[in-house]
Design a protein that fits this description.
Length: 268
């Protein structure tokens, strides 16, 4: 199935934008205390009008925070967001950065699967009247985990248009999670692989509690075939790279290449 969304331009005053951002403080308050241990959200540009936001989660007793990447896409009609921060406080930081650095507000968000590092900040977006889209399966899985769920509008192939910017959302099949999707920006040749792809320094597959190890390699190959022009590839965790991340992820998925992770799965 295929669906298309269009975002028209709209103007919004600075005062209204500030009021909207302030409203989310009530939402963010509950998570702020827990995140005092975590570094602030970081931002970097990876292509014209495309920025990676990286948020961190640190639990008491752990040695290092876990980083999670998402995208911000600047368009002529406002910003598009791919994945939230881990929580509402971090998502508020993202909204502030977009307002202060890009002088825009986020018009729409897409979440790529039902894990906390992808949709943990939905409440902050909803408090700011930002539409949050995900697949029906993502919405179902989020509700089953008692997480805020996106509007279930994303089909296996979905095209989002915002001015001259096109954003494609594609479901290649189960991998890291049963519902993981990737996002493609054809004009900038940027692919957000999310947690389906591992960064170049990864030595394990990471969290595979919900993974389908049998179908994951096929999903990676399908994405590589579908988007052969990708120049910048952004994984869900770690540094962005290029098409070599497909090969690296497939290498980690080979039988016997990641014994510790596979043992953890078998002992569930």
């Amino acid at each position: 199935m295929r669906s298309t969304f269009s975002i028209s331009s709209a103007r919004r005053g600075r005062a209204a934008r500030l009021l909207c951002l302030l409203s989310v403080f009530l939402v963010a308050g509950g998570s702020a205390q827990a995140q005092k241990l975590a570094p602030p959200v970081r931002f970097r540009q990876v292509a014209p009008d495309v920025f990676v936001h990286t948020s961190y989660h640190k639990s008491a007793g752990t040695t290092a925070p876990v980083a999670a990447n998402g995208l911000i896409v600047r368009t002529s009609t406002g910003a598009l967001l791919v994945d939230t921060g881990w929580n509402s406080d971090q998502t508020l930081q993202i909204l502030r950065w977009v307002a202060d650095s890009l002088h825009q507000h986020v018009r729409m968000a897409v979440v790529t699967h039902a894990h906390e590092d992808r949709l943990g900040g939905i409440a902050a977006l909803r408090a700011n009247h930002i539409r949050v889209l995900g697949s029906p399966l993502t919405a179902k899985l989020a509700l089953a985990q008692q997480l805020d769920a996106p509007t279930p509008s994303i089909q296996p192939y979905t095209l989002i248009r915002a001015g001259r910017t096109r954003l494609e959302v594609f479901f290649p099949g189960p991998g890291h999670a049963p519902d993981n999707v990737v996002v493609w920006l054809p004009r900038q040749r940027v692919l957000f692989g999310g947690s389906l792809l591992k960064d170049a320094t990864a030595t394990t597959l990471g969290n595979i509690a919900d993974a389908d190890l049998k179908q994951w390699p096929a999903a990676v190959r399908k994405v590589a075939t579908h988007y052969p022009k990708a120049q910048v590839v952004v994984p869900g965790n770690g540094a962005p790279g290029g098409p070599e991340l497909f090969t690296h992820t497939l290498r980690l998925l080979r039988p016997g290449s990641n014994p510790q992770t596979r043992t953890a799965l078998n002992s569930k």
